[in-house]
Amino acid sequence: MTLQSPPAPDPAATPTGTGAAGAPARTAILEARQLTKQYRLPGETVEAVRGVSLQVAPGEFVALMGPSGSGKSTLLQLLGGLDRPTSGDVLLEGEPIGRLSDEDATRLRRERTGFVFQSFNLVPLLNVVENVGLPFTIAGQDPRSGDLAVRIRDAIALVELTGKERHRPDQLSSGEQQRVAVARAIVTRPALLFADEPTGNLDFTTGLGILDALWRTCVDRGQTIVLVTHDAKAAAYADRVLVVGDGRIRDEIALGRREDHGAAPLIARLAQLGL
C-alpha cells in the first residue's frame, strides 16, 4: 500500500464534513493544512509529521491512532497549539493559530481548548473542587462565584465524582484522579478537547470508565474531541479514526456515532490494512 497524506484542502472551499450521525456538512472547527514538523539533531533531520491535512467537524469525536513513534502525539501538539509546525497551518474556528504571538496563542489555548494527558497533573494540596476550578483561578476569576461554581459542580457530576468534592488526589484512585483531570479540561467549555493517551496509566476497566466519560461529553454537551491512542479499544469510542504512521495519515476509518463501542469492526479494518 502506498503511504501518502491526503491532498491539501482548497483554501477557497468551505471545509465541510459529514457529522457523526450523518448530519449535514458543517464548517470545520479544526483544520490542518499540509502540516510538517522537523527536528534537527546532530547529523540528521527527523521528520515527525509529514504533510498532514485533516478536518474535524463541531461535536465530532476523532481518534488519531498509531503505534509509538508514529507521530500522533506530535501531531496533537501541533493541532492544540502546544508546538509550532515547521510548515503548514492549523486553523481553530477559522483562525490560523500558528500566526499568533506567543501571548495570543497562550490565551487561545486557555480559552478555547482543553487538554487531558496520560499524567493526571493534579495539584496535591487542592481538593477536587479546587483542582477542577484551577483554570478559573489561573485566569484571575473566583471559582466560588455563582456561575463558575455551577459549572464546576456540573463538570464533577458529568464524570461521576459527586460526593467526593472535598477529597484530595491522594484520597482518590488513579481512575478518579483522571476523572478530575477530565472535569478540569471541560469546565471552561472549550471548543476543542485534546486527550493524549488518557488511559495509558490505567487498568482496562478503569480506562473504559474514562472513555465513557469523554464520550458522554460528546453526546450530552456536543464537545469536540481529538483523542490520541495506540489502543484500538480506545479508538473504537470515536466517530472516526485517522490511522497515523511514519508521520502521515495512512487511512481514515468511519465508525459513526453509536452506543456500542466494540472494537471488532475497527480491528477487522486495521487487519485489512496489515496493521
What layout of secondary structure does this protein have?
Layout: E1 30-41, E2 44-56, E3 61-65, H1 72-79, E4 87-92, E5 95-96, H2 102-112, E6 113-116, H3 128-132, H4 134-138, H5 146-158, H6 174-186, E7 192-196, H7 204-221, E8 224-229, H8 232-235, E9 240-245, E10 248-254, H9 264-272
Parallel strand pairs: 3-8, 3-9, 6-7, 7-8
Antiparallel strand pairs: 1-2, 1-4, 4-5, 9-10
Helix pairs in contact: 5-6, 6-7
Commentary on this structure:
Mean pLDDT is 87; it is low at 1-25. Strands 6-7-8-3-9-10 form a 6-stranded mixed β-sheet, sandwiched between helices. It has a 4-stranded antiparallel β-sheet with strand order 2-1-4-5. The protein is α/β, with parallel strands linked by helices and 275 residues long. The chain has helices at 72-79, 102-112, 128-132, 134-138, 146-158, 174-186, 204-221, 232-235, 264-272; strands spanning 30-41, 44-56, 61-65, 87-92, 95-96, 113-116, 192-196, 224-229, 240-245, 248-254. It starts with 29 loop residues before the first strand and ends with a helix. It contains 9 helices and 10 strands. It is globular and about 50 Å long. Helix 5 (146-158) packs across helix 6 and helix 6 (174-186) packs parallel to helix 7 (204-221). It has one domain: Rossmann fold, CATH 3.40.50. The longest helix has 18 residues, at 204-221.
